[in-house]
Amino acid sequence: MARIVMKFGGTSVADLDRIRNVAARVKRVVDEGHEVAVVTSAMAGATNQLVAWCQELSPLYDAREYDTVVATGEQVTIGLLAVALQTIGVDARSWTGWQIPIRTDGQHGKARIDAIDGAELIRRMQMGQVPVIAGFQGIGPDNRVTTLGRGGSDTSAVAVAAAVKADRCDIYTDVDGVYTTDPRIVPKARKLPAIAYEEMLELASVGAKVLQTRSVELAMKERVRVQVLSSFTDAPGTLVVDEDEIVEQEIVAGIAYSRDEAKVTVRRVPDRPGVAASVFGPLAEAGINVDMIVQNVSADGTTDMTFTLNKTELPRARLVLDEKRDEIGFAELATDPDVAKISVVGVGMRSHAGVAGTMFRSLAARGINIQVISTSEIKVSVLIDAEYTELAVRALHTAYGLDVA
Amino acid sequence: MARIVMKFGGTSVADLDRIRNVAARVKRVVDEGHEVAVVTSAMAGATNQLVAWCQELSPLYDAREYDTVVATGEQVTIGLLAVALQTIGVDARSWTGWQIPIRTDGQHGKARIDAIDGAELIRRMQMGQVPVIAGFQGIGPDNRVTTLGRGGSDTSAVAVAAAVKADRCDIYTDVDGVYTTDPRIVPKARKLPAIAYEEMLELASVGAKVLQTRSVELAMKERVRVQVLSSFTDAPGTLVVDEDEIVEQEIVAGIAYSRDEAKVTVRRVPDRPGVAASVFGPLAEAGINVDMIVQNVSADGTTDMTFTLNKTELPRARLVLDEKRDEIGFAELATDPDVAKISVVGVGMRSHAGVAGTMFRSLAARGINIQVISTSEIKVSVLIDAEYTELAVRALHTAYGLDVA
């Protein structure tokens, strides 16, 4: 017997039939003798409608009123799911964020969970009752409803799992697990039985958006064992756990890619102390995040700086830098939106040399030029011409022995 | 400068354009220098959709979960209206039932308001802020959302008006006031500038459903001055107030009719003590309300009892009485659904004789047979054949001098 938090996203509760399916799935787990709490999103489309109404009334809507409106989506689902569960004989009771309460900070529209008192939920679960909890919402210090930002229900589920000391947090989605890479690009991609928190975070940050990043960070911090699995099949999913729990650890867990970045090169900047600050300071002040950075020294006392940022920020970044042109003293600003970032991720890299070398050789063998390189303890990323994305991902997937047998 | 509670029903906030109209109307009252609080219903249709979902999942849905689901309708409206008000420069803030809190008893789905703490609302209004309050909902002793039953937003508005000691509670509806009778039957019906609480109650109970009965009872108890007016025009409406406030009191305020009742006659019951109890006891136990009652004594030691009840209860009443036939000892059960109840209402009756006489003479002059008569201090009601309804209402409207000049 285990204590399990089951989380269902918007497509899993999109209409009454799907809500009934979710109820049946919860009942199966209850009937196996487990203690269960459920966290749900709003019915697919509901949140979009509520957001659209707020935006139509005022593009500069008050975030506190936005939260009041948008949080109703989950409140509808928890009530309906509780009724659906009761109808098939499962003792269930709905809980809004303010009822538990799920205390958050006061950043309306993108609040962070501060604390959840799990005592009453645990008491109910021990009695055999299934708490059905609204995801994505909490209550702020101002006694008003807060929402966690889009996709926040994953974070709610992990936070609830930590609060009730659950053995596992099962996140039901429209994919059936985490793969070694995008199966649309590599048909031989394998579903991973398990992946370490750190790997999941690196994969999420480079585009494999199975779980919201914040939920993985929280799971890692609170040591919540997470399982990603499909709400439409019964296959086991992927466990996201501490790396110590993964018995047969591969050196490389997966290959990720992102086409969301653009490359900026500031040419012929005077090569003197403080020049990096003069370039990146104004960008940071404008709230523009910079990702990969390289600097080449040239012979004539100038240097070229290359970096990447989110493609959508490119026009704004260009404005900011052009304004500071004289101050920074660069000769030319070159930008290239047609780039892709390819990353090899795996906690095994910490103890195995040669991972980066394999990557560079594989890409060179296919004539793919590497424009920028950046590395972390468990990741090697390269920036390449976007048109080589699929070729690169497939080559690396094979090179690291990830192809399905 | 006055303190005013403005209440808007579902048709007044049916879409974003109408919500903007409501905001503009609130702004006009604020700009006149008044302190304003707003109470709103859900967008027209929203509540029906939410109720339908609950019913489709389970006709025997848990009322606590029903309340959780259905109360979201008003929560959406208050957030949107607060945004619409802010957009045109009115300081506004939404309030759900649990935030104020509006404390109710624990009868989920049909709760009654126990107490509202108006202190914080008054403080905000004095600061110039407009509280936008969800009607129809509160919070029960179990810390769960309760709803007041359909139409409960009128009651919410009156209760809020009492709690903030408002000078007036303006109820915006799709009619522009209370008329001397139904203008669809009598084109010469007049809009009343004012009507006494007791008169409004009697009119509501016989089918003139401008305000929810419970809201009028509460207004009378708390001495809240209510105004019924149209949300689509700027004409003044009808004040519902203490009779002492009405200067030019007519003897008869209005003529009401109801086709919702059916007549039941229990023939040849033994005429002995306790026989009324033997008939009406079982009906009361079955939750069936009986309205008008007459008893005729016949010569042979038996009596006929005639009474009316809501037409929808007729089949159930017949079942209940047939079951008790031997016990009661009646010979025959006759029912007639084709009846109408016509009522003449006015607090002036207390001090003026002859009101009933005028009624009987007018009906007799048109050959309309009276089947049952019942009277209260401020009302005379008669049951007649339904096909004479319009004729009777028009005749009485003229007889009491209510026709527009």
TrEMBL record, chains A, B:
Q: Name one GO cellular component term.
A: cytosol
Enzyme type, top EC level: transferase
Keyword ATP-binding (UniProt): yes
Q: Residue limits of the ACT domain?
A: 264-347
Q: What SUPFAM superfamilies does its record include?
A: ACT-like (SSF55021), Carbamate kinase-like (SSF53633)
Record keywords, A-Z = Amino-acid biosynthesis, ATP-binding, Kinase, Lysine biosynthesis, Nucleotide-binding, Transferase
Which pathway does it take part in? Answer: Amino-acid biosynthesis; L-threonine biosynthesis; L-threonine from L-aspartate: step 1/5; Amino-acid biosynthesis; L-lysine biosynthesis via DAP pathway; (S)-tetrahydrodipicolinate from L-aspartate: step 1/4; Amino-acid biosynthesis; L-methionine biosynthesis via de novo pathway; L-homoserine from L-aspartate: step 1/3
Q: Per the record's keyword annotation, is GTP-binding included, yes or no?
A: no
For the biological process aspect of GO, one term held by this record is:
homoserine biosynthetic process
Catalytic activity from the UniProt record:
L-aspartate + ATP = 4-phospho-L-aspartate + ADP
**TM regions (residue ranges):** none
EC number(s) stated in the UniProt entry for this protein: 2.7.2.4
Q: Which GO terms describe its molecular function?
A: aspartate kinase activity; ATP binding
Write out the residues that bind ATP. K7, F8, G9, G10, T173, D174, Y179, R184, K209, V210
Positions with a binding annotation for substrate: T47, E74
User: What family, per the record?
Assistant: Belongs to the aspartokinase family.
Q: What is this protein called?
A: Aspartokinase
* Taxonomic source organism: Acidiphilium cryptum (strain JF-5)
